[in-house]
């Protein structure tokens, strides 16, 4: 189950989330949520670890309100903190975690802390997929079910979970639905400093689950796919039986695996022990064992067989006695096989291994055979005792499991594991002569759109079709594999000319495009291909794969539906982007993000009527970064939702603070991305934020870009209508830069339009821009919308906008974007 040579450092997390002992519990919980980890290390002023506070420690709290949240984490942490050497084997760490009943530990190397290891890290290091696929979910082997009604209070849930040591609790609704409250939810409530009245408000739903009897592999895959740590086990009637955690799955696997292993070894040892002690007990052993046994004399003539021998081979006792075991020979073993067998018997007196034999009816079968020589006091061999079992079905199952372990279940193509083996073999064959071969990394364009719009069934159907296309065009002796998702790769083992590779890449692109519309939907299907060549682009498997991947991303950047050969400067750009994405994941937790404010003013009087909240990133090495450099990375890395919610919360908190100071900031405008509106309950998030900071909904403006607002198929009108019902002021940002349907614009529940800066910057000397700006102002006024011109930098621009009837504006003519403190000073100066 575990890799015996694997050390604890190899599975640990190198980034240690830490805080001081006087940090509040609410703040510690907030950092853990933002970082997506289950523990935080408490340090002293010199950075030395004092203890650790985990999700499970939240169970020790009596409440989750703001008063409890203000307690210092130093009073709730677990001590002493367990520190493990970096070279400790994983197997020893497992035993240590169980003996001490811990879930987290620090990892130390050369006197310095180099990472954190959790029970989850140890669990994920287990290679149990094959065993999981043939084991079933059994509800009564998991932890006892904790269940409360939706009208119960979080305090009741906390007490029940603490009493049972549970990591999750099920919540039942009157309509028969279920929700779930986990340790992560308790952290969230503690971080928010609120305790909802009922579990209906505090829990997450719906509760995902599997039927009892589903495979453990299916259960674990569902947990990993949805990034959750618990799921439900339902019976055939849909009744909730149990909550199943990832730890429960592994415990089931280990328990059954060890039971089967011990049982098999005990049966084999018992049979051999009895047969060696005394041949007088042979009759009893023969009658009871399921394994075939035959006894020969010193010359190999069969003297005795048991009933299991006859059942397995088809030969009766009368047919076998007096003959030699050669009657079972299949001819499948090589000539020297039996020479080595007899040599082992003469030298050590024992032999065991697998043999393919033939039954009486002619059918072949595989047996596991153990032979023991029985000698007298002088060392002369009196008998040979052979014990064997029919393992044909087991061998077939092993072959099937081996296939599943090395092939993609959906397409039947080799998976990453098998592909890397074949790639390494190709490298070893090519090394002596430096022969060329190529890797073609194929990635479908906009495949996520297919899954999101048509569903995963259509996506799977498309992947099977693409696999067939790649196999159709792949030359003989090449390997086509599916690495993951919509990523495929082709190993072309013998390449004479680069033009040969380019021609094949174009064939593949054309073949993929031909699949457009074949799924029953009018979809254009295309792919991007990156190509790396051996040995020019790398002499190791990792280098060739990384460079082919870089080339593929270059193909996407150049418009998709094309192929690119690897060039040396691709890696530098890829590494820079990867480094930025990694840093951005930690930026929230490390408080590197900032919100700046640019005033909105009345053009006629220059009175501040509000401001736009603008995101900035103060990178510890690169300094202050504008959004244009990191927002696309946040979009690709699915970070826009948490970052957007943080900006909204920060802006509302600052606005509430300025109101309390007697300042008049007007209305705060926050930009909202399409991802925030499409996924999750954004209107609920806005409502909670306004309540938390005591803001009136009319004081908040949400700016939506024109392209997002015009996306009719995504249900954008309904999403905006929910926000409008809250009383939030909605406006269209960057108006005029995209394609707008005026009839659709009339349906949108918006109150304002922002004229894009690209029209404002040249309107004083460009007649077209002036005409367009005048038209936009006319459209907005006819629709009863308030207009704001952005990018106003000159008095002549302000005068033009006033003449045309535009009342509001923002730009460097009035103020550049300001940090919070400077904007606060500007408000105070204009009182």
UniProtKB/TrEMBL annotation:
<dbReference type="Pfam" id="PF00990">
    <property type="entry name" value="GGDEF"/>
</dbReference>
<dbReference type="InterPro" id="IPR052155">
    <property type="entry name" value="Biofilm_reg_signaling"/>
</dbReference>
<dbReference type="InterPro" id="IPR001610">
    <property type="entry name" value="PAC"/>
</dbReference>
<feature type="domain" description="CBS">
    <location>
        <begin position="202"/>
        <end position="260"/>
    </location>
</feature>
<dbReference type="GO" id="GO:0071732">
    <property type="term" value="P:cellular response to nitric oxide"/>
</dbReference>
<dbReference type="InterPro" id="IPR046342">
    <property type="entry name" value="CBS_dom_sf"/>
</dbReference>
<dbReference type="Pfam" id="PF00563">
    <property type="entry name" value="EAL"/>
</dbReference>
<feature type="domain" description="CBS">
    <location>
        <begin position="12"/>
        <end position="73"/>
    </location>
</feature>
<dbReference type="Pfam" id="PF13426">
    <property type="entry name" value="PAS_9"/>
</dbReference>
<dbReference type="GO" id="GO:0071111">
    <property type="term" value="F:cyclic-guanylate-specific phosphodiesterase activity"/>
</dbReference>
<feature type="domain" description="CBS">
    <location>
        <begin position="139"/>
        <end position="196"/>
    </location>
</feature>
<dbReference type="InterPro" id="IPR000700">
    <property type="entry name" value="PAS-assoc_C"/>
</dbReference>
<dbReference type="InterPro" id="IPR035965">
    <property type="entry name" value="PAS-like_dom_sf"/>
</dbReference>
<feature type="domain" description="PAC">
    <location>
        <begin position="349"/>
        <end position="403"/>
    </location>
</feature>
<feature type="domain" description="GGDEF">
    <location>
        <begin position="435"/>
        <end position="568"/>
    </location>
</feature>
<feature type="domain" description="EAL">
    <location>
        <begin position="577"/>
        <end position="831"/>
    </location>
</feature>
<protein>
    <submittedName>
        <fullName>EAL domain-containing protein</fullName>
    </submittedName>
</protein>
<dbReference type="Pfam" id="PF00571">
    <property type="entry name" value="CBS"/>
</dbReference>
<dbReference type="InterPro" id="IPR029787">
    <property type="entry name" value="Nucleotide_cyclase"/>
</dbReference>
<dbReference type="InterPro" id="IPR001633">
    <property type="entry name" value="EAL_dom"/>
</dbReference>
<feature type="domain" description="CBS">
    <location>
        <begin position="77"/>
        <end position="134"/>
    </location>
</feature>
<dbReference type="InterPro" id="IPR000160">
    <property type="entry name" value="GGDEF_dom"/>
</dbReference>
<dbReference type="InterPro" id="IPR035919">
    <property type="entry name" value="EAL_sf"/>
</dbReference>
<dbReference type="InterPro" id="IPR043128">
    <property type="entry name" value="Rev_trsase/Diguanyl_cyclase"/>
</dbReference>
<dbReference type="InterPro" id="IPR000014">
    <property type="entry name" value="PAS"/>
</dbReference>
<feature type="domain" description="PAS">
    <location>
        <begin position="284"/>
        <end position="324"/>
    </location>
</feature>
<dbReference type="InterPro" id="IPR000644">
    <property type="entry name" value="CBS_dom"/>
</dbReference>
<keyword id="KW-0129">CBS domain</keyword>
């Amino acid at each position: 189950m575990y890799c015996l040579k694997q050390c604890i450092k190899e599975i640990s997390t190198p980034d240690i989330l830490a805080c001081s002992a006087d940090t509040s519990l609410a703040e510690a919980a907030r950092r853990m949520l933002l970082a997506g980890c289950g523990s935080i290390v408490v340090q002293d002023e010199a950075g030395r670890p004092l203890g650790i506070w985990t999700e499970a420690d939240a169970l020790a709290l009596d409440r989750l309100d703001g008063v409890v949240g203000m307690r210092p984490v130093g009073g709730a942490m677990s001590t002493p903190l367990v520190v493990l050497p970096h070279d400790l084997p994983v197997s020893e760490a497992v035993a240590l975690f169980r003996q001490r009943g811990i879930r987290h530990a620090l990892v130390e190397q050369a006197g310095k802390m180099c990472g954190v290891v959790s029970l989850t890290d140890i669990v994920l290091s287990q290679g149990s997929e094959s065993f999981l696929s043939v084991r079933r979910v059994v509800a009564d082997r998991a932890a006892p079910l904790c269940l409360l009604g939706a009208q119960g209070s979080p305090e009741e849930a906390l007490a029940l979970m603490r009493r049972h040591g549970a990591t999750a609790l099920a919540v039942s609704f009157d309509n028969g639905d279920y929700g779930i409250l986990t340790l992560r939810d308790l952290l969230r409530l503690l971080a928010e400093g609120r305790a909802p009245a009922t579990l209906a408000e505090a829990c997450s739903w719906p509760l995902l689950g599997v039927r009892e009897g589903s495979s453990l592999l299916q259960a674990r895959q569902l947990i990993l796919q949805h990034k959750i740590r618990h799921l439900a086990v339902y019976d055939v009637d849909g009744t909730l039986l149990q909550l199943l955690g990832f730890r429960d799955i592994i415990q089931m696997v280990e328990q059954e695996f060890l039971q089967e292993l011990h049982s098999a070894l005990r049966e084999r040892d018992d049979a051999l022990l009895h047969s060696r002690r005394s041949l007088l007990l042979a009759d009893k052993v023969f009658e009871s064992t399921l394994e075939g046994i035959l006894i020969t004399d010193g010359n190999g003539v069969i003297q005795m067989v048991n009933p299991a021998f006859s059942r397995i081979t088809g030969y009766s006792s009368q047919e076998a006695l007096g003959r030699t075991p050669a009657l079972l020979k299949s001819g499948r073993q090589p000539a020297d096989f039996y020479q080595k067998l007899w040599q082992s018997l003469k030298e050590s007196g024992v032999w065991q291994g697998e043999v393919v034999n033939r039954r009486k009816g002619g059918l072949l079968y595989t047996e596991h055979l153990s032979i023991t020589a029985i000698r007298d006091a002088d060392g002369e061999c009196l008998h040979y005792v052979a014990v064997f079992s029919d393992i044909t079905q087991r061998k077939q199952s092993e072959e099937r499991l081996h296939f599943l372990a090395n092939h993609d279940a959906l397409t039947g193509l080799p998976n990453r594991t098998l592909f890397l083996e074949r790639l390494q073999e190709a490298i070893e064959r090519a090394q002596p002569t430096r022969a060329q071969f190529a890797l073609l990394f194929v990635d479908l364009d906009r495949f996520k759109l297919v899954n999101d719009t048509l569903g995963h069934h259509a996506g799977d159907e498309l992947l099977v079709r693409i696999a067939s296309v790649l196999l159709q065009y792949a030359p003989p002796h090449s390997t086509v594999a599916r690495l993951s998702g919509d990523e495929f790769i082709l190993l072309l083992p013998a390449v004479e000319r680069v033009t040969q590779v380019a021609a094949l890449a174009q064939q593949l692109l054309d073949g993929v495009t031909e699949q457009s519309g074949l799924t029953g939907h009018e979809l254009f299907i295309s792919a991007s291909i990156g190509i790396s060549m051996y040995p020019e682009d790398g002499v190791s498997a990792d280098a060739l794969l990384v460079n082919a991947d870089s080339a593929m991303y270059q193909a996407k950047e150049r418009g998709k539906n094309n192929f690119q050969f690897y060039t040396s400067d691709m890696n530098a750009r890829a590494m820079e982007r990867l480094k930025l994405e990694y840093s951005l994941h930690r930026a929230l937790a490390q408080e590197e993000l900032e919100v700046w404010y640019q005033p909105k003013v009345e053009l006629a009087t220059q009175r501040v009527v509000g401001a736009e909240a603008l995101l900035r990133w103060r990178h510890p090495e690169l300094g202050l970064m504008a959004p244009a450099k990191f927002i696309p990375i946040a979009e690709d890395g699915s970070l826009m939702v948490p970052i957007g919610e943080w900006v909204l919360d920060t802006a509302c908190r600052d606005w509430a603070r300025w109101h309390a100071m007697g300042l008049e900031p007007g209305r705060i405008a926050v930009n909202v991305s399409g991802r925030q509106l499409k996924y999750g309950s954004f209107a609920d998030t806005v409502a909670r934020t306004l309540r938390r900071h005591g803001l009136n909904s009319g004081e908040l403006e949400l700016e939506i870009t024109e392209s997002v607002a015009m996306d009719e198929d995504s249900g954008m009108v309904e999403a905006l209508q929910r926000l409008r019902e809250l009383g939030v002021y909605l406006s269209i940002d960057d108006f005029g830069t995209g394609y707008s349907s005026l009839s659709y614009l009339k349906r949108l529940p918006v109150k304002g339009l922002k004229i894009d800066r690209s029209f404002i910057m040249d309107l004083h000397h460009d007649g077209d821009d002036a005409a367009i700006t005048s038209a936009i102002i006319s459209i907005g006024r006819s629709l009863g919308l308030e207009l704001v011109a952005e990018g106003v930098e000159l008095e002549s621009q302000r005068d033009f906008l006033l003449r045309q009837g535009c009342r509001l504006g923002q730009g460097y003519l009035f103020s550049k974007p300001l940090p919070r403190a400077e904007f606060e000073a500007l408000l105070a100066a204009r009182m």
